[in-house]
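Subject: mismatched residue count in predicted assembly?

I count 184 residues in my input, but I want to confirm that the predicted structure covers every chain. Input:
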Amino acid sequence: MLDFLARRRSASALTLAAPGPSEAELADLLRLAARVPDHGKLAPWRFIVLTGEGKAAYAAGLEAIAAGREDAVKLTAKLGKLKAPPMGVAVVSSPRAGDIPEWEQLLSAGAVCTDLLHAASAMGYGANWITDWYAYDDEAKALLGLTAGEKVAGYVFVGTPSEPPAERVRPEAAALTSVWSPTG
Ligand SMILES: Cc1cc2nc3c(=O)[nH]c(=O)nc-3n(C[C@H](O)[C@H](O)[C@H](O)COP(=O)(O)O)c2cc1C
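Triage response: the counts match. Full output below for your records.
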């Protein structure tokens, strides 16, 4: 586990190709991702799987939305990261009313994305957590089927990388760390 965390890297979504996870592997990925820390056992998130004809139709719908915008060329180009991979999972944050702060429920949705990424990588696939404009755009969110109060925590795209990702510069944890003391 420590070795995995020391070496892990996202693949670029643009390099992801078939094969992606089988139906059984996808079920395992989602079961593992749903085990994240979740204050109050609210499961304040849900999954929307994008695959096959459904994914192609979703991409076509986003292209139609992009075509009507001033920056259509830029928005359409961004869809490459959605179109290339064989499949993706939209992790949707669905905060529940009650005592648990919404902030904690959003953090839990982020943890779902992270664990989905890790589980897909551990299974031998490449994976990439993406948001891009269609995570935030109201028309795109309606196309995805989000209801009021829901947010896209991320699209996690999964497939077989056509090239290994290069190592990325990482922050020096010590430079970001202090030990609290009463004198500051
Ligand atoms: C919430 C969130 C949204 C992200 N959205 C994008 C995105 O839209 N496009 C992109 O290229 N990378 C995005 N990233 C960054 C990649 O997922 C990834 O972290 C980055 O490429 C570094 O790879 P690593 O996982 O090996 O550190 C996002 C990351 C997070 C946490």
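The two ends are 35 Å apart (CA to CA). Marking this ticket as 'not a bug'.
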